[in-house]
Design brief:
The complex is a heterodimer of chains A (111) and B (885).
Chain A (H helix, E strand, L loop, with lengths): L2 H20 L4 E2 H11 L8 H13 L3 E7 L5 E7 L1 H27 L1
Antiparallel strand pairs in A: 1-3, 2-3
Chain B lengths: L1 H13 L1 H25 L4 H10 L4 H12 L2 H19 L1 H30 L10 E8 L13 H10 L3 E16 L2 E11 L3 H5 L5 E2 L14 E4 L1 H8 L9 E4 L2 E8 L12 E4 L15 E6 L5 H18 L1 H4 L2 E6 L1 H5 L2 H45 L4 H40 L14 H27 L3 H5 L6 H41 L9 E7 L8 H16 L4 E7 L13 E5 L12 E7 L3 H5 L3 E4 L13 E5 H7 L9 E4 L8 E7 L13 E5 L7 E8 L7 H11 L6 E5 H8 L1 H35 L1 H9 L4 H30 L15 H27 L3 H7 L1
Parallel strand pairs in B: 3-8, 5-7, 14-19, 16-18
Antiparallel strand pairs in B: 1-9, 1-10, 2-3, 2-6, 2-9, 4-7, 5-8, 6-7, 11-20, 11-21, 12-20, 13-14, 13-17, 15-18, 16-19, 17-18
The chains are: A alpha+beta (111), B alpha+beta (885).
Chain lengths: 111, 885
């Protein structure tokens, strides 16, 4: 497997996590990272270095959109929101992932 | 989606500052949050900040990534490339000027020719739904299908209509001139159609006023009716609706106007009246092919399918009626294919080919100029590469530059084309050429698309190879001072050589084309007609059949008129003929004939000859040579005195070793079935440029009269001065007869070859452009090569090489490339020369004189183009080089 494919796989997973986090409601970039960490019970840490490129990428695909808003501590922050297309994509990716995870666990179980 | 993204980017272009700021703000917020969090967790402020920033990694890259998405990165780089390209071009005004002018010339010529060819060949007359109309063309298979017969006989039409399932319905018509008169208006000559009753419904049109033709109107003996086209209704009857029911005279026969058609009801040619085609009494002869057949294709049937079915049906007819239909094939064609002569199409295609060659040569030239600049710019390219520019990015930058060049050239070329088309139109008008009514040399969508495509396309074509070459940089050697990377040089030189060779080869092809066309024109212009064309005034007649029904009336009219004209002061002699020498129809008709004493085995395969009708005194009046025998007299052609005169080619073919006088022949369908005695053998007279050396039979007009004849008079004074007297003579004889085309024979003859002159002039212009461009290319290449090898030349000079030796070295370096191009070009011309053969007269496509001429002209020009820059090499001075270094 080349580096490129590996990156794609990871990216795809990150995209899924971001979409999932935003499906709970609009949130700014920092909050998205925090939210994923909390949902994963601190087992996952999202690097800022990959979080923002992922957000921009999803925005370009129009799965999420962004606008300025006021954060919980009364500061100006860029909030991201799931679009209807993004919600559809989330369902597709969720299903894909579950099938993938199921398959992997089968393989591991069989060993 | 695509558009939205694009618009967002365009907006981004103007808001790039804001977007950058917003992204910075967003990330700053994140960092601040992280710092706060870190402090909460017990870090010191510095520690907290350091940790927050570290977790981002390359902050700039993230920002740029965001800008790419939100802002107009893609568009912005295009804009940057454009600005940069423009700066580069402005900084090198000489290069820019040469490149733009070269391309503008080629794009201009290309667009001009495309505009003309588009109007003539590609534009269909404005007939609604014309794409679903197919024309059935008959083909004389024994003569090849290059110039089809087209027409069918009435019984053939009925059979086609009955048997063809590919058409919803088939209609038939013929074009005819008629004289229309009514009370209140002058009699006028109009072009009309006689058509089957279903013609308008096949066209999908209904009369605007009144009624359409009904089958009853085409029955023999039906009372004559006519429909007006909108144009005539407007111009002659001021759109008066009471015109319906009015009686007019068509060729002096009363007819009732029953309707007016809408403006968009038309056939290929613009006409004035729609008249019924009277069904000929059955059985009608199948060899009388005088109807054009067309129909509306049935749903889902293509022209090709219809054509296949038509071929099958006419094959049945060949079997059923072998006497008349043997070797008659059929093909279904679209309107343009059916109506535009194959020759015109060939000329159009040849011209398009010619301008494409010019464009390619121009591209090769500019590509070479760009390659020449590659050396100068190699350091710039190397710096870009060192700064991290990707190769693709560099290629894009270079292509942007070349497309910028070609678009500038396209704009300039559009003006050149506009001017060129105007000049062409004026030239056509100058020679009195009448175009079809819908042929307008205007710019339509196709022309604009063509212009846009070639303007952008050429930029990519000539820019791509140099861009690929220039972007492949060997950093270390390119950055060294004065480094002239040897590897790059060799490759570049190979590409240059290919380009120069191609240029030379392509100009050979164009020069050959122009040379052959010019030789044809000169040949046609100098053709010995066999008559004296000076001081001959001619007038054409078309007698109305109602008044001049029988041969008797026709003969007496012409006899009387010739006598009156001949008696006028200033006239030496007058004679009648069916067509003028030097200006006959290019597609002459031939008629089957029979020689007494040579039995014919197969009536269908009889020999054919061209036939002309003339009156007494013809050869005297035309000052043409009679080799043997005598002219026709007034007695010849009367019953019992059937006579014929043959030309020398006819005599040579049929009686090569005998005296033809006194032999008897019989020409089909020309009056009497009696044998005609040959009373004279005339020198060959050229009737048109394609008929030189054609066997020909002259029949006396009494034997074969007609309504369409020409009267010519040999004058003692300037022919034009007698025109009024001519008209008066006609008026005295028949005041209602329209007289047209009173012109001198010299005028007729010179207008006959106008098309040759026009086309050879166009080809010559293209060839000169091509030659100039190709020699510029050679010159530039040698000149660059001399520049690059300055040091080498200086060393050679220092080692004792004479100036002449250095000159010779550089000279032959260029001539060598030229020679390869020349050989390839000659081979190419030989291969494509056949395409011109249908246009040429008197020269074969492989004419050795033209080849020799083209090779010499090219060699001289190439020798100059190589020799001049090579002189600088000869003047190499080692001392100067040392000072320079």
């Amino acid at each position: 497997m080349t580096n490129k494919q590996k990156a794609d796989l990871l990216q795809g997973t990150l995209d899924l996590l971001i979409l999932r986090a935003l499906s709970l409601g609009p949130m700014h970039g920092y909050g998205v990272g925090q939210r994923i960490m909390q949902m994963a019970e601190e087992m996952l840490k999202i690097e800022e270095g990959s979080l923002y490129p992922a957000l921009y990428r999803l925005e370009e695909k129009e799965w999420i959109k962004s606008e300025w808003g006021i954060s919980e501590n009364n500061r100006r922050a860029r909030f991201y929101k799931l679009t209807p297309a993004g919600r559809k994509q989330l369902n597709i990716e969720k299903e894909n992932w579950q099938r993938f995870a199921f398959a992997i666990s089968k393989v591991l179980g069989a060993a | 989606m695509w558009l939205k993204n694009f618009l967002r980017r365009v907006r981004g272009l103007w808001r790039s500052e804001t977007i950058h700021q917003e992204i910075t703000d967003e990330l700053q917020f994140h960092i601040d949050m992280r710092v706060e969090e870190n402090i909460r967790r017990g870090m010191s402020l510095d520690e907290a900040r350091w940790d927050a920033e570290r977790s981002f990694g390359n902050l700039t890259r993230i920002k740029e990534g965001g800008y790419d998405v939100r802002g107009g990165r893609w568009l912005e780089t295009v804009w940057q490339d454009l600005c940069y390209g423009a700066r580069v071009l402005v900084k090198n005004p000489f290069f820019t000027l040469v490149a733009v002018l070269t391309l503008a010339l080629a794009i201009g010529a290309n667009t001009a020719v495309f505009t003309i060819v588009n109007a003539v060949l590609f534009r269909t007359p404005p007939i609604p739904g014309i794409d679903r109309i197919g024309f059935v063309a008959s083909i004389d298979k024994s003569h090849g299908n290059d110039e089809p017969l087209q027409a069918f006989s009435y019984p053939d039409y009925r059979d086609l209509k009955e048997r063809l399932n590919s058409f919803e319905d088939l209609a038939a018509y013929q074009y005819r001139p008629v004289d229309l008169s009514d009370d209140g208006n002058f009699p006028e000559r109009y072009f009309v159609v006689r058509m089957t009753a279903n013609t308008l419904s096949v066209l999908g049109r209904k009369p605007l006023l009144g009624r359409d033709l009904e089958p009853g109107d085409t029955e023999p003996g039906a009372s004559p009716v006519a429909l007006l086209t909108h144009r005539v209704w407007e111009s002659r009857y001021n759109k008066n609706e009471s015109v319906i029911g009015k009686t007019v005279h068509i060729d002096e026969t009363p007819a009732t106007i029953i309707g007016v058609t809408p403006p968009d009801a038309r056939l290929y040619n613009d006409i004035a009246l729609w008249l019924p085609l009277i069904t000929p009494p059955s059985p009608s002869p199948r060899e009388r092919r005088d109807l054009l057949v067309f129909g509306r294709l049935a749903n889902g049937i293509s022209i090709g399918q219809a054509s296949a079915e038509a071929t099958a049906v006419v094959r049945q007819l060949e079997v059923e009626y072998p006497a008349t239909n043997k070797n008659i094939g059929a093909e279904v064609q679209d309107a343009n294919e059916f109506h535009i002569r194959a020759q015109i199409r060939h000329v159009g295609q040849a011209l398009l080919g010619g301008v494409t060659i010019v464009l390619l040569i121009a591209c090769a030239n500019v590509a070479n100029l760009l390659l020449g600049r590659a050396m100068i710019r190699s350091r710039e390219m190397a710096i870009r590469a060192a700064m991290g520019a990707e190769r693709l990015r560099v290629i894009r930058q270079l292509l942007t530059e070349s497309v910028l060049l070609s678009i500038m050239a396209g704009v300039l070329g559009a003006f050149l084309a506009y001017w060129g088309v105007k000049a062409f139109d004026a030239a056509l008008a100058g020679i009195g050429f009448v175009k079809s009514d819908y042929v307008v040399f205007s710019v339509d969508r196709k022309v604009l698309m063509h212009l846009a495509a070639i303007s952008i396309g050429t930029g990519i074509v000539f820019g791509l190879a140099p861009a690929l070459r220039m972007s492949r940089i060997d950093l270390s050697s390119a950055l060294k001072e004065g480094g002239q990377g040897a590897g790059v040089g060799v490759r570049r030189r190979l590409l240059t050589n290919i380009l120069v060779g191609a240029e030379v080869a392509l100009s050979v092809v164009l020069l050959m084309g122009a040379g052959l066309m010019t030789r044809s024109m000169v040949y046609a212009g100098n053709m010995k007609l066999g008559v004296n064309t000076e001081n001959v005034l001619t007038v054409r007649f078309d007698l109305p059949p109602s008044k001049y029904q029988g041969p008797q009336q026709q003969v007496s009219f012409f006899q009387e008129l010739t006598a009156r004209i001949g008696a006028q002061p200033g006239v030496e002699a007058a004679a009648i003929m069916s067509e003028l020498p030097g200006n006959g129809p290019l597609r002459g008709m031939t008629t089957p004939f029979q020689i007494e004493g040579s039995p014919i085995s197969d009536m269908r395969d009889r020999p054919r000859t061209a036939v002309l009708t003339i009156g007494p005194g013809y050869f005297h009046c035309m000052q043409a040579r009679l080799a043997l025998g005598r002219e026709f007299t007034e007695l010849d052609g009367t019953p019992g005195h059937e006579a014929a005169i043959i030309n020398q080619s006819f005599a040579d073919r049929h009686w090569p070793r005998e005296n033809a006088l006194g032999k008897r022949i019989r020409v089909d369908g020309r009056g009497t079935e009696a044998w005609a005695t040959i009373v004279g053998v005339a020198g060959d007279i050229v009737q048109n440029r394609y008929s030189e050396g054609l066997p020909r039979v002259y029949l006396p007009y009494r034997q074969n009269p007609g309504r369409y004849l020409v009267v010519a008079a040999r004058t003692r004074v300037a022919p034009a001065s007698l025109a009024p007297a001519f008209r008066q003579s006609v008026k005295d004889l028949d005041s209602n007869l329209p007289v047209f085309d009173v012109r001198s024979l010299a005028e007729h003859v010179s207008s006959a070859n106008y098309d040759m002159r026009l086309f050879s002039a166009m080809f010559t212009i293209l060839a000169i452009i091509a030659l100039a461009l190709a020699s510029m290319g050679l010159y530039a290449v040698i000149s660059q090569s001399v520049n690059q090898r300055t040091r080498e030349m200086a060393i050679r000079a220092a080692m004792g090489a004479s100036g002449f030796r250095l000159w010779r070295l550089m000279f032959f370096q260029g001539m060598w490339r030229f020679a390869i191009g020349l050989v390839i070009g000659l081979a190419l011309s030989f291969a494509v020369g056949g395409a011109l053969s249908s246009i040429l007269v008197g020269v074969s496509p492989s004419d050795p004189v033209t080849y020799l001429l083209v090779v010499s002209v090219l060699t001289i020009v190439a020798a100059l183009a190589c020799g001049l820059p090579a002189r600088r090499a000869a003047r190499s001075d080692p001392a100067a080089l040392l000072r320079f270094e």
